[in-house]
Amino acid sequence: MNRHVPIDQVEIRDAFFAPRIANARHTAIPYMWDTLHDAVPGVAPSHCIENFRIAAGLAEGEFQGFWFQDSDLWKWLEGVGYALSVQRDEALEAQADSAIDLAAMAQQEDGYLDTYYIIKGLDQRFTNLKDIHELYVAGHMFEAACAYYQATGKRKVLDVACRFADCLCENFGPGENQLHGYPGHEEVEMGLTRLYAVTGEKKYLELALYFLNERGQKPYYYDKERLSRGEKLHEKRENFWDDYGYYQADVPVREQTVARGHAVRQLYLLAGMVETGAAAGDDSLVEAAERVYQNIVQKQMYITGGVGSTHVGEAFSFDYDLPPDRCYTETCASIALIMTAIRLHRAHPHGKYGDIVEKALYNGILSGVSLDGKKYFYMNPLETWPERCERRNDIRIDDERKGWFGCACCPPNVLRTLTGLSMYLYTENEEYLYVDQYVSSVVEAGDTKLLVESKFPWQGEVKIRVEKAGSKKLALRIPGWAKDYTFSINGEEMDHDAWNGYEFAGQVQDGDVIELVFPMEVKKMRSHAHIPEYAGKVALMMGPVVYCLEEKDNGDELWNLSLSDGPIAPEFREELLGGVTILTAEGVRESTSDALYSEEETKQEKQPLTFVPYYAWGNRGKGEMRVWIRKA
Amino acid sequence: MNRHVPIDQVEIRDAFFAPRIANARHTAIPYMWDTLHDAVPGVAPSHCIENFRIAAGLAEGEFQGFWFQDSDLWKWLEGVGYALSVQRDEALEAQADSAIDLAAMAQQEDGYLDTYYIIKGLDQRFTNLKDIHELYVAGHMFEAACAYYQATGKRKVLDVACRFADCLCENFGPGENQLHGYPGHEEVEMGLTRLYAVTGEKKYLELALYFLNERGQKPYYYDKERLSRGEKLHEKRENFWDDYGYYQADVPVREQTVARGHAVRQLYLLAGMVETGAAAGDDSLVEAAERVYQNIVQKQMYITGGVGSTHVGEAFSFDYDLPPDRCYTETCASIALIMTAIRLHRAHPHGKYGDIVEKALYNGILSGVSLDGKKYFYMNPLETWPERCERRNDIRIDDERKGWFGCACCPPNVLRTLTGLSMYLYTENEEYLYVDQYVSSVVEAGDTKLLVESKFPWQGEVKIRVEKAGSKKLALRIPGWAKDYTFSINGEEMDHDAWNGYEFAGQVQDGDVIELVFPMEVKKMRSHAHIPEYAGKVALMMGPVVYCLEEKDNGDELWNLSLSDGPIAPEFREELLGGVTILTAEGVRESTSDALYSEEETKQEKQPLTFVPYYAWGNRGKGEMRVWIRKA
User: Fold this and answer.
1) What CA–CA distance (Å, rounded) separates A230 from A170?
2) Alpha carbons A83 and B77: distance in angstroms, whole number
3) In a 3-state reduction of DSSP, which class is residue A193?
4) Which of A226, A251, B51, B315 would staple B115 via disulfide (CB 3.0–4.6 Å)?
5) What is the dihedral of CA A611, A614, A619, A625, to 10 degrees?
6) Cβ distance B138 to B190 under 8 Å?
């Protein structure tokens, strides 16, 4: 069974990621704690903790915020758990424990714990699984509980989680007196399976399987619960949210082949299918997830690892519909993409999954957070014209990162991804240790210990020093973008012999040094011919990093720029955007007459172009940005 | 005072327009009559006539359809009036008279006539001028009444109109017991001024002026009526329809400088300002309208004469925001654009107005109706990808013309434009006869009679035979696209001496022959540099006609085609699309690898390109279309 190396066995020393993780630890965690407590001036109150206080009987008032507001606390706690796995922290634990105590006080006799219905009326609970995210919130609670318990050994939150899970097992299942439903927003599947992994309690896994197996079966449960609430069924499904495909619940999950509907829902479903399928030994779930995942990465993913082509429903649209300026490409969706990719990798190891993890990490996820770690993008477009963002009503794109959101799913999701980053770096089983990402770190997997050093993503040289050879064989991912590379052990160059995207080192010895050199060449990427917006255009990449033009460096009307043939020069700029390699190249700026339309030929002038990493855009004030540029 | 030559003094013999007008006369008029009577199978019932029957007490039932449904009858009747001006028709008049009788029966004691409130409750009338289009409907009634009266000499509908106009004069105005409001959808200004022109009743003109002068004054009337209805005012205007700018009612009309809000409203306002201002001798209204009009044609108009860049609110957006695939470019808005242009021309004659009339007529208006005259586009995009039209929720573009619409404003608007086309062709005053458009026809203006012959828009030769020289001097428009042209009288070439876009012929004699030759060259048009979508692209025009690529002729993925340098050959094809000149040129098709993103260079293959006139697109089944094409 493949698993990630435990967090506390990985020490990240990476020049690129370590400061970002430190930011998450020292800036985002306290900042989010304050927002959960409505204590950040200028940020709309979250009401999250207040809801718990009301549910616990410590305060009076109405539930406020979204019906899934509890999940903000749980995602925060999950992120805290990972941070504490790396380093314990009494003050932080005291905060977390106080929140856990509060949640425990709010928990009902039978284990139920969702402040929305505790405050609004428990008679309504489980009556609208499709729209009200009780099971989604539960899933996040289970993940948080596992993370916090594993980090601290403190059982309280795990007990709270198990009591709620027991309550779900009581209420859901095939029994006559049980509900045969399943969540409208997937997440609980992962949570239950993880809770099973931590506690060994098999019924949690069975409930996860039950939810997956019931999903999309006819007659539809969502129809039934609608009728039970005394509502009519729709004759025509005019709105996307009336179409159960939006919830991936129109056909059974094993029959689904194409990504549809809400992007985060879709990907949490896939991640849950893989995790649960793998844990239950049901490969049909893994295979079905793989099918939909392949549809995404082959036909519905932006070059940045962004997914979700339309803001209407925050959703996938259809194959090759990937407009750069009308996408949703939610930060959470890219996170969900790597959650799925890493689970597929653990089910059937292959370097192609690491390619997607790497792509999303270095581009579409990191773009979601400002360099100072304080501001967030919900949406990550590949092209912006601020005037249009502000003035067109059919576009839902922010032209600046914001401090927080009413629906605050992305910030804590970034937090848990960064503090739990090491889970994406190494995979182990009895025989192998897979080095999945070249993030500088020290890793101990069983009796094997490595020191990995790289300057990714700016330089392609990787040095792996075998501190303790131990019993595991080493597998080293060859990134998909590295067509050419060298691989040597103790200075001896090895033949290329990659299999499933990995080079395998034979039995190594203590003190061995493995060196990999991946050429970090600048590449002019083309898109598939079926995407209208990118015809005749290229996007620059160097290694895993996607580049973009910003107004700040290149003036406005970026659309009038095109890239000339000729050399593209990388240059590392320590002082810029936290230290980035920029690309400079010769370009052309086209200009026209002042008439709206004119037969006059355009004027073309040379202009040097400066490209910066996409993830770093929007950190120097408002302005235009674009990833894809015409070729001169 | 400049005016159009009366309809019955113009006989259109044009190879291009005559069949279209015949279609309107013989297909659209009876078809619409049937739809107004809910008698077209497969077309959703309009309920328009039924509403009149209920209002007249001849039937029982509720009002159905939009609150402005009455206007469909009035626009139909206006179109019928123009058709009858050209040729009387007993059967058609019998139909029209029966509808007029019905309307007269529905008319209230005090002259009020709007079936919506007659059926819903007259106590509510005039309580929501902003949203319920009573005054808009009234305007269309007045225009229809004038047209039908002028065509037939039958006073009944004119009397109905005057009685309603009297009712409005009673209810609206500066008096203490009068309402100080103005319409949420402009139109009544034109209607009242026209009614004044036909009847000489000055109070109608005064009411039109009153509506224009009150518009946008503070405190806002729309706030007052909202409060009177017991509703609250918005603290924040979150939706476009809460912003009075959407109704051009946030500032007084003379202070408005930029086109905003609902496109048809904006342009009906401008047309009303010019018509009323000119009739009242108030040039400040004309000047204010000219300012906003110039903003439109210089910064907010598509190359096809389409206007309205966003479907959200069917509205203008902002300068240079002219996306080809997210526009609204409603057929009605282009019609309203030429209504404004022709009125500005009559206020201060200049050829530039005729350029816009010509552009919209040959492109963005005609594209709204199928070649057989039976199907309509509401929206006229410059680029379509059927899959996207069907599958993206943030796009509101039809990929096929429809038989009718629930909100059926465009079909009768096209009808009245075509049957009343001659009003756009000639302008006269005591001294001059302006030939504004070169549509083959015989025109008698006072004692001057001309025979105009051309093969516009396919050929640029125009021959004008002076049948009777009469007392008027001739002014001949030189289209803006004709940089070079020849102008001769009786074979003698004249020097170029155009002024305000017109060449003036001195005193001509009976039998004189004036010849104009405008070179119909193919031009590669560029757009202003501030429009992102057209950077690096060209649109082909020949004379006034804008061309497009269709999938039918060029295969799919039109975005992969680019236009090579080299000759572009026009060829008239009698059998194609009702007879069109197509353009053929050498092009290149780019293709890529099957990967979603790849560093592989694209393959380029030559491909001949076929362009067809934009107005004729979508007449050969579904498929992609695009106007702007990359240069290879």
Assistant:
1) 25
2) 75
3) helix
4) B51
5) 70
6) no
What is the three-class DSSP state of A421? helix
DSSP 8-class letter at A500: T
Q: Report yes or no: B239 and B157 within 8 Å, Cβ to Cβ.
A: no
Beta bridge partners of B588: B562, B606
Residue B106, chain A, CB below 8 Å: the answer is no
By annotation, the residues of A acting in catalysis are 314, 409
| pLDDT score, position B236 | 62
B515 part of the active site? no
Query: Is B206 buried (19+), middle (13-18) or exposed (0-12) by CB count in 10 A?
Result: middle
Amino acid identity, residue B413?
Answer: N
Q: What is the mean pLDDT of residues A561-585?
A: 97
Residue with tokens 């230290």: A579
Tokens of residue A131, six digits: 């729209």
Cα dist. B265→A347, B81, B138, B491 in Å?
A: 61, 24, 15, 48
In this complex, do A326 and B529 lie within 8 Å of one another by their Cβ atoms?
A: no
Q: d(Cα B104, Cα B125) in Å, to the nearest integer?
A: 18
d(CA B182, CA B214): 7
Model pTM? 0.95
Q: How far apart are CA A277 and CA A209, in angstroms?
A: 8
Residue of B nearest to A561 (CA): B535
Residue A258 binned pLDDT confidence (cut-offs 50, 70, 90): very high
Whole-angstrom Cα distance, residue B241 to residue B128? Answer: 14
Question: What does the pLDDT look like over B173-204, one tens digit per residue?
Answer: 999 999 999 999 999 999 999 999 999 999 99
- Determine phi and psi for A230, rounding to 5 degrees: 80, 15
**Catalytic one of B143, B189, B314, B330:** B314
pLDDT at B218: 95
DSSP alpha helix (H) spans, B281-399: 283-299, 331-347, 351-359, 386-391
Considering only CB atoms, A524 lies closest to which of B562, B594, B599, namely B599
What b-and-e string marks burial along A324-352, b requiring 16 or more CB atoms within 10 Å of the CB? bbbbbbbbbbbbbbbbbbbbbbbbebbbb
DSSP state letter for A376: B
3 state SS of B538: strand
Output DSSP code: residue B430.
S
> Count of CB contacts below 8 A, A vs B?
134
Helix (H) or strand (E) holding A441: strand A441-445
Name the residue among B274, B330, B336 with its Cα closest to residue B136. Answer: B336
pLDDT in tens, A72-99: 999 999 999 999 999 999 999 999 999 9
CA–CA separation, A257 and A437 (whole Å): 29
Residue B293 C-beta-side C-alpha neighbours within 13 Å: 29
**Residue numbers in chain B where pLDDT is lower than 50:** none
Closest CA to A167 of A143, A135, A140: A135
pLDDT-based confidence at residue A241 (cuts at 50, 70, 90): low
A594/B394 Cβ within 8 A: no
What's the whole-number mean pLDDT along residues A19-42? 91
pLDDT tens-digit series, residues A431-447: 999 999 999 999 999 99
For residue B53, the Cα-to-chain-centroid distance in whole angstroms is 30
Answer whether A393 sits within 8 Å of B312, measured CB to CB.
yes
Q: Which domains does chain B have, with CATH numbers?
A: 3-424 (1.50.10.10), 427-517 (2.60.40), 522-631 (no CATH)
**For chain B, how many residues are written?**
632
pLDDT score for B352:
98
Q: What percent of chain A has pLDDT over 70?
A: 98
